[in-house]
Fold this sequence. Notes:
Elements: E1 2-7, E2 11-17, E3 23-30, H1 35-49, E4 55-61, H2 65-72, H3 79-90, E5 96-100, E6 105-109, E7 115-118, H4 127-136, H5 141-148, H6 162-174, H7 179-199, E8 208-211, H8 213-217, H9 219-229, H10 242-250, E9 254-256, H11 257-267, H12 283-294, E10 310-316, E11 320-326, E12 332-339, H13 344-358, E13 364-370, H14 374-381, E14 385-386, H15 389-400, E15 406-410, E16 415-421, E17 424-430, H16 439-448, H17 453-461, H18 474-482
Parallel strand pairs: 1-4, 5-8, 10-13, 13-14
Antiparallel strand pairs: 1-2, 2-3, 4-9, 5-6, 6-7, 10-11, 11-12, 15-16, 16-17
Amino acid sequence: MRIGLDIGSTTLKIAVLTEDGTPIYTHYQRHYSQILQKTAALLEEVARRLPHLENVQLAVTGSAGMGMAEACGIPFVQEVHATRVCADLLQPSADVIIELGGEDAKILFQKGIPDARMNGSCAGGTGAFIDQMATLLAITPGQLNEMAKKHTKQYAIASRCGVFAKSDIQPLLNQGANENDVAASILSAVVNQTIAGLAQGRPIRGQVLYLGGPLTFLSELRAAFDRALGLTGICPKNSLYYAAMGSACCATEFFTIRELLGRLANAGGADHFAFIDPLFKDRFEYEQFAARHAKSAVVRGELEQAREGCYLGIDAGSTTVKLALIDPEGALLASSYQKNNGNPVPHIKAALEQLYAQLPDIRILGSAVTGYGEDLIRSAFALDYGIVETVAHFTAARQVQPEVDFILDIGGQDIKCMKIRGGVIDNIYLNEACSSGCGSFLQTFAGALGTEIDDFARLGLFADRPVDLGSRCTVFMNSSVKQ
């Protein structure tokens, strides 16, 4: 007998094959990062179902399988090779294989010039991305699939980044978009990301195989691929288990089930993780940091001064709206900061109404708006000016620090670095395809850990062993947090 284990980023698959390659037992489940325990439980189930098994040939594959294989001294098979071995046996006429997993996506070109394309630094358009979007809609991926069957139109939704996609979806929902149409749009975004990001212009033609959990379970995802590619792909029998079956076919080393369980038990003793230096050695160092920054505090005044004349500034950002009222010398008289929930107009209206309720005879001499919603807010509230936000940042920074030469701005979805030279903005760098490390990213992780963002920040300030989660992709980091 041969056993193949496919340990992916989110799921665990096992396939037990006879000597002629016939599967006699398969199983698929989420491992919730409990890889050793779940693997041991599966092998115990195999021993219970197939008590006659003695020596078996076993190999491991999958993105999360290498570490376990090394710890247990079990042969490891690269997953692209394992998938190809199985496809060559079961579907030798396949021209292209499209496989979506929990965090990885692959396109394998079998004919012509063989090639394998995989996602690297981004997990947009994978199963975990679909999970995130379903959670946003407060439904399961299966329910999202059923809703997509009833769609009548589709919207453009960012597929590269879960945070960007969330910010595309929330305004649609706020404006009354049909959830069935949003569900179908999410699946189409996955298709666009896979084809554009991986195929990169190479035509996908001929017989196309659909493999992996998302393509197996979500019929509307397959239909979206069919529409985009202009063909009818095949989701073969055992589509979930191609990598597991391929690794079983590659297995050469013999083990007993008891021996494997012993190796798994002995590998479970390690309790360590990569960590980085703490932000502050102690509270004294933090207090020095806070005192240094307090020296650059904005000059403040009283709201009553606005009777003599003031200026209104509004920043309509990607996830929040900010209002500032200043006097002619630049002192801050009042401010407001709140989430926009995808629709800034009612929030700004409420903040202005509150200002006038506090000071009915307020005298606003001029007004300006900046940010993502600049044009909308300027028209909605008849403001005097629209200001490019880099210029707005520089003007305010120079008010506080006349000799400023560098500005770092972290917003809801964007990060901007501005270099100042000779009193003008000399260069600007900003994020493009990925919004990890932005405000919405931090808010999402605070929520995932069951904390408010203020508590989340305080916990982070005094952590003695900060975990090294990487820095690029929200989905990848989310799995690291779980582990």
